[in-house]
Design goal:
The protein is α+β, with helices and mostly antiparallel strands. It has ten helices and 21 strands.
């Protein structure tokens, strides 16, 4: 391979790779870029392996009114309409577009890091991560382009493929080199794409959320201009986030941020599936905040994922304290993830922070309840001691790694409830294979007032009303809520595994 030919001497390698962005491992077969990693990857790295081939389809969105989900939508929404088309028809357009994205073979362009120019510094530790662009879905007859960082661990090959994860940034965030490297270091290939139509100011900029100011722009810029016939995908603002009426103007779904952002994620998923170095049976998805919202939406349209981990952001965003525009009936009807979660049969970790001021306990609970019976590994972890940020989600949390490894490598899985607690008296079994039962601590988190679904909820704790029979062979967690002043509660399980602390949560139970 010509990439290996670059390794003439260790000194030359260190100097060359400092800024150039060359791969330590060979690119997928079909890469036409020799040495620098620039240009178009004809065939998208597809080696011809049927397992990894997403196939080619005509670039046309076809509405299928015989699809079970269309018939389901007609039954749910009837003739509900906010314009010339019914909600069911518009949801069919979204579904057809996401199906087109799923069936698209992605050809991407690698943009080499700029060697020897101090204006465009790239840290040596990120040298193997590629800056790529690929086509998104068309908008009003024009093409769109998506930027992403894509990294594969050194040593991955078609003979020894690695698992992978799709990374979706949150509001105010971007595709981060640091995030891709975090998962690469754990043995996973990873792709992080921009979902708001933005591009870095140069290949290799925007390493993390604390070094992003001035590093991106809502413009193709000097280094990523795809040429004539392209427009920027919609950004996420009040006018373009969702297809809804704005100042009396009705918008098509294809003009909305959510439509193009979901497609960008699905197409990024295809990039991974097309790479022979990636095991397509072990690809997961995670998103942070708005990215968690997107992940919750995407898994309802693309159920090829082996696991999903929405962080902070969730489904059922109209519950409790509505998030963003999800209090709008039309927005929720078109884009609410809840309407498609019946398709999300993969294991899901709903990972949340109890003190979050953006998302709420009712939404977490509804998301868990909608998916827990589709896969016994699906669980909820509501952390009382956390913060809301990108780096908190991947550098200061170990739950997502525990969950992903349990699916991809068969390691110890999180402790889970076999059934959810309910009412004032309950007996539920716990699953805790591989976890020392003596390390499991059970705590009742409860409220003495109606839940407000905000960071102002006054959560109190008690351990006396719970009993876990870890020695009697029943594995039963019993609860008797004797205090009649309690309005509602959830159960928190804290446990230790390999010296690390983890939590699992039940959903919220309203008593009055």
């Amino acid at each position: 391979m010509k990439h290996y030919a670059l390794r003439v001497t260790a000194l030359f390698l260190a100097l060359t790779l400092l800024l150039c962005g060359c791969q330590d491992t060979p690119p997928p077969t079909g890469d036409t870029n020799e040495g620098s990693g620039g240009g178009t990857n004809e065939g998208s790295g597809n080696t011809g392996d049927d397992k990894n081939d997403t196939g080619n389809e005509e670039n046309k969105i076809v509405i299928d009114k015989t699809h079970p989900d269309y018939l389901r939508d007609v039954a749910v929404f009837g003739e509900l309409s906010y314009g010339e088309k019914t909600v069911a028809e518009q949801r069919a357009e979204i579904r057809a577009a996401m199906e087109l994205a799923k069936n698209t073979t992605v050809e991407y362009t690698v943009h080499p890091y700029i060697n020897g120019d101090a204006r465009y510094p790239v840290d040596y530790e990120y040298r193997y991560i590629q800056a790529i662009t690929y086509d998104g879905l068309d908008m009003n007859g024009s093409k769109t382009s998506v930027f992403a960082y894509y990294g594969v661990p050194e040593g991955a090959s078609a003979e020894e493929p690695v698992p992978a994860v799709v990374l979706i940034h949150g509001g105010g965030g971007h595709a981060y080199l640091e995030w891709v490297k975090h998962w690469n270091d754990l043995g996973y290939a990873a792709i992080a794409m921009e979902t708001t139509g933005e591009f870095p100011t140069y290949p290799g900029s925007c390493t993390d959320e604390y070094h992003q100011v001035g590093k991106t722009a809502y413009a193709f810029g000097e280094f990523f201009d795809p040429g004539e016939g392209y427009v920027l995908a919609p950004t996420r603002d009040s006018k373009t986030t969702f297809a809804k009426e704005v100042n009396g103007t009705y918008r098509e779904v294809s003009e909305s941020w959510a439509y193009h952002a979901m497609a960008a994620v699905i197409l990024g998923h295809n990039v991974l599936r097309q790479d022979a170095r990636v095991d397509s049976d072990r690809i997961g998805i995670t998103g942070i905040s708005w990215g968690g919202v997107l992940a919750s939406m995407v898994i309802g349209y693309d159920n090829r994922f082996a696991f999903a981990m929405p962080v902070y952001g969730t489904a059922y965003l109209g519950e409790g304290r509505p998030f963003s525009d999800y209090g709008n009936e039309y927005v929720d009807a078109l884009w609410g993830a809840a309407h498609n979660l019946h398709n999300a049969t993969m294991p899901i970790l709903w990972l949340a922070w109890l003190g979050d001021s953006f998302f709420c306990m009712d939404a977490y609970t509804a998301s868990l309840n909608a998916t827990k019976d589709l896969n016994e590994k699906t669980t909820l972890s509501v952390r009382p001691d956390w913060t809301h940020s990108h780096q908190s989600a991947y550098l200061r949390d170990n739950h997502s790694v525990l969950f992903a490894n349990s699916v991809c490598f068969g390691t110890t899985a999180p402790v889970t409830f076999e059934a959810q607690p309910s009412g004032r008296t309950f007996d539920v079994k716990l699953r805790y294979e591989g976890v020392d039962p003596e390390s499991i601590k059970t705590t009742l988190y409860y409220l003495r007032a109606p839940i407000r679904n905000s960071s102002e909820d006054d959560w109190q704790t008690d351990t006396e009303m719970l009993y876990f029979d870890s020695f009697g062979g029943t594995d039963l967690l019993s609860g008797v809520i004797t205090d009649t002043g309690i309005y509602g509660y959830f159960v928190l399980l804290e446990y230790t595994l390999d010296g690390e602390q983890y939590v699992t949560s039940s959903g919220y139970v309203a008593l009055k």
